[in-house]
Amino acid sequence: IVETCYRKGLVRVLTATSTLAAGVNLPARRVIFRQPRIGRDFIDGTRYRQMAGRAGRTGIDTKGESILVCRPEEVKRITGIVRSDCPPLQSCLSEDKNGMTHAIMEVVAGGIVQTASDIHRYVRCTLLNSTKSFDDVVKSAQDSLRWLCHKRFVEWNNDTKIYSTTPLGRASFGSSLNPEESLVVLDDLSRAREGFVLASDLHLVYLVTPINVEVEPDWELYYERFMQLSSLEQSVGNRVGVTEPFLMHMAHGAAMPIRGRPKKNTSGGSGANTLINDQSLRVSKRFYVALMISRLAQEIPVTDVCESFKVARGTIQALQENAGRFASMVSAFCQRLGWQDLEGLVAKFQNRVSFGVRAEIAELTTIPFVKGSRARALYNSGLRTPVTIAEASIPEIAKALFENSWSGQDDSGLRRMQFGIAKKIKNGARRIVLEEAEAARVAAFSAFKSLGVEVPQFTTPLLPASEDSPPRDVMVFPGAGHAKCHESVLGAHVGDERNICSDYVPQRASTEIVGEDMHPVSTIHIKESQGIANSVNIASMQEASPLSTLPSRNVADKGPVNAHNFPGGFDGFLDQWSSVDEFSFDLHFVKRSSKLSLTIFEILGLAVCWENSPVYYCNFPKDLTPTGSNDSVELWEGFRKRWSRIVGIMQQKSVKKTTWNLKNQIQALKSPCVSCQRLARLHLDPKTLNNIEVLDSTYVLLPPISVYNGLDICLVAWILWPDEESKTVPNLEKLVKRRLPSEAAAAANRDGRWRNQMHKAAHNGCCRRAVQTRALGSVLLKLLVSQNLSDLIETVEGPLVNVLADMELWGIGADMDACLRARHIIITRLKELDKEAYKLAGKSFSLNANADIADILFTHLKLPVPKGCEKGKLHPSTDKQCLDHLRDLHPIVSVIKEHRTLAKLLNGTLGSICSRAKLCIQSQRYIIHGNWLQTSTATGRLSMEEPNLQSVEHMVDFTTRKNDKDFTSMSMVDHHEINAREFFVPTQENWLLVTADYSQIELRFMAHFSKDPVLIELLSKPDVDVFTMIASRWSGKEESLVSSKDRDNTKRFIYGILYGMGANSLAEQLECSPAEAAQKIQSFKRFFPGVSSWLQQAVASCRQKGYIETLMGRRRFLSKITAGNSREKAQAQRQAVNSICQGSAADIIKVAMLKVHSVITNGSNTVDSMDGLMQNFSQIRGRCHLLLQVHDELVLEVDPSMVADAVNLLQISMETAASLLVPLRAKVKVGKTWGSLQPFRPEP
């Protein structure tokens, strides 16, 4: 259209981007360039002439001019480009362009070249023959033919002396794939036929993803997304050649690892390694694109995929379009090879890739004007095939497509537009149906004719003459009355007065109220398991009721129900909800940031369900507002009363409440807010109504809710399978698929899915989660009881969620000014180290790249590679252990170590403070709010992220030069000591930090479990240095003669024994020979015979049971201790001993946290109210906050007047957390910052 208008003179000026301008072939009188750049690149002569050449086209115009706008300093460069000669043409058949092979393949397949003389005739017609000698061109063509014959694309017939194509060659030619691509596709498809993963779409998506993609992955993000995949999807990656080690290397910026499948008949060498690396890189990039396309095929919005993979929207759409085209090429390839099995799969998948839809709606996308979103809307409304759409009325199609904008204005322009689109879709569906019918008729008649049967022909064709012929539908508008509905499968007449299209779909009608006669499809009964297993197969314990005895319509068919539709209204729903003994819930809320840097939790609704009930959705702004009154005071009082009833229900201690992600919901319910805009009907006025607190002039703050007896199903799964669940990010969907039978998982998804999915999309997630939580709870809680693990979660892990929620909300203060000063000093020192390293090495290199460091140390400086540092890598290791071996051989080693230490501090702790700290307007202090992870370790330890404050560095000291020109004068040097913990301060002005750290906690557990009398005696003595005493007893020296080095070596040795280290590892730790280390191990076992015996018993018990148990009954399953190889067995033995002590230490620090938290808060959300502690320390409440837990250490902030009480509370809580054979000791320190703590000394 544009070209026609332009040629006719209707359009006189065209404005286009450089990309479009280079491709549009329209002559012009004048061409204007607004700048001499295309993107960031300066224009070259070829592209300039291509675009400027349309001006004054010969034979069309008499003259033309080209104008280029540029800066004065660019004139000289532009002049050179304009006056430069055209670059010589080069043939694409040259060897470096790989074109000859493709060309020969095409001419042989097309029948142009069949004999040797044909090759001579063909190459004489090529541009390559004009630029190279004829013999060289013929040789290149013959080499290509030999390669094609060798790869089975072409074959030579010795009898006829003719070249012909093989099925592979015909498949390559017919699919438009070049030979190199054809080999890759053939290899992928061949392996897929041997082991195709049909349980996931990812394998099929990979096969239709173009082989060579131009997308450069963010490797760190790629690795993160790969690790988030399910085990099934990761197995797809492994099957096609994507490995976790390769992605890890790329994510860490390391050089490419030499990994790949072993190949036959290949010699070692850099060429083979490069080939393997290139192949791994190509496969990994292709799989990365496949991950994006697979998400689109699951109907995840393009914007979400762009955000998840940090890719531009245009890139995603281009990849999707290319994948659709490539799918058709792969389908044609399979067809020519005669692989009908794969051809059918790929052909059906093409629409899914092109339109980004799931399998169930792919058929609908074949209808004109129907793409992903419209196909989903039609499907959800029950119009699931072209046939049903062709039979449906236009109003029904329009209502399905435009549910949200459907109104009662019959003559509106919007309605006419909607009917017009619906009409086009209906006509398109009718045409598809009629074409299929016509094809079936022709096939049937052909079959009859082949049998000799005469069949009369139709006088008129089945297909209509025009797509726009008026349909024979009757449009029914509101007020026209309702027709009788047909009988449903239950034999009942069900009326539906909710929409104008109910007349056309009587059997899809439904009600909003659940009747008494409706029952769940099946009931799952769990038999108590006998014995212990590392993994429980839930599916084997399911007993489902026979479907034949159940009605065909039940609760599961209904999906969620609005709470206000309950019999008796919303108050009737609250009455029923308050009477149940156990329920599952999920809060629908949005976390927002206010203008005053406050975190606001806007609550929108709540999904609730209990045994044999549908899931009810409470829309807070709507359902809590009473009806029947316009008085704002009465409406607000009614709102408050209903909210108070919900508060009472959620705070019932006798009622068990299960949910998912309880911690975040607790935080939202501590300060719940509702948008004033959503409460517009109440006409709220804080001046006239009492007890209304408005935040940020936008949100009404409601009374808080404390969730008593709440249980997070995520914790239950983690307690049952600690190693499995700690390796992945908690995901409810994956847990349902992994731990429930497929029937139960499908039923839970149905129960939580709204009938009108598009309309209810805003809160469908919480309804689904509530039902899935109920389904998981009915199974996992019984397993928890059968494994005797219920006490652990009820007394420790469950109540701890409240503690972690408060710690996250409160945060910890940060001294931003001091942090920025330290950051500036470190950056200065890093620049100095760069200069020193370059001077010492004699050449420039990157101190941040391990490959560069290895090259400098071992290739350029010729330093010897330490033993054990040369295996299994592209370059020798440059880790801390390796550098320690080299520290005396060259001064550059100390520079590298210092650079690493400071770079880690700069990018880690200081970077986290600068990026995560937020200014609190109220206190005018910067505060960091981290995220506590309760299920990320198999031993029970807590961890932290965003940022991780459990690994903050201690003191780092270094020097910087005042004058870079003076390298000798020591007087020009500044000494710096940076302690990153100095930057963490209380959140309140003038408050102090108080910390308490367990002394030798794991050693004390070793003494308790081993019952070794010598160790118990040593640890029972108060106020002594335990490791000095052990070193003295062990070596026979007086305590005063034990050096600090002897003490430190003893400490390292004991913890090495505890962690299961062997003689070699201990030798490295103690800097002695393996023989000496082995001798020390035997001496230790003789001196502490109880410990030696316990170590053996712990391993033997784990072998027998398959798991270890901590002090409080926590279990860790170690199946590899009996079923693994020698290395895995040795690792499991070390884990068995370590997990007992480390897990027990994690248990008691959590108990101490609960005790402290119960005192400094109201304490009523814990199982044991600890009345004695609360009464003795009631004065400290509100004047002390728990900030951090660093493994065996607790960090609190305290009002200075309450320091002595806080110290007593900490010591009592920590030292009485468990009863052991040896006393627990807690060392307490106090200071203004975390890095300036001093031992607490009570005032006399």
Automatic annotation (TrEMBL):
Entry-linked Pfam families: DNA_pol_A, HTH_61, POLQ_helical
A Gene Ontology biological process term: DNA-templated DNA replication
Sequence ranges assigned to domain Helicase C-terminal in this UniProt record: 1-100
Protein name: Helicase C-terminal domain-containing protein
PANTHER family linked: DNA POLYMERASE I, DNA POLYMERASE THETA
Source species, domain of life: Eukaryota
PROSITE patterns noted in UniProt: HELICASE_CTER
CDD domains registered for this protein in UniProt: DNA_pol_A_theta
GO MF annotations in UniProt: DNA binding; DNA-directed DNA polymerase activity
InterPro entries found in the cross-reference section: DNA-dir_DNA_pol_A_palm_dom, DNA/RNA_pol_sf, DNA_polymerase_A, Helicase_C-like, HTH_61, P-loop_NTPase, POLQ-like_helical, RNaseH_sf
